[in-house]
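Target chain:
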Amino acid sequence: MKKIALLIVVLLFVSCDEFFEDCIFFPAKAEIRTTRIDKVKVGEEYYQEIEGRVKNGHGNFHYSFDVGRVPEGLSYYKLGNKLMLEGKPVESGIYNVSVELIIEEDCYSTIDDDESDCDNICFDNNTAKKNYSLIIEE
């Protein structure tokens, strides 16, 4: 009887290793790695990368960004897991720029391996938000 109970416990842990890995020990979550953005002067060319990633994630992910209002003269675009902020600002001041990163598992990857099959069963921390102060000097 003890052998059967031990076998059941072992089978439970072997079949639940994904649960323990994804949910308890190494939960995946969205993260914005860029801690601050550089200041710039009015009329000067500005370029800033804001990098997102999946901490403890494995497989393929789709990254999107939701950006608040940016100062006049600046624009942004997404390139992979990065948000690019660029342009020539036209007015000095201190501006609050909010960035939200949204990550989804890429279930349609053409890579055929165990790491990209959308099986991260506890991937619910798929957004991250950060506010930056952009200083534009005269």
In short: The chain has one domain: 28-137.
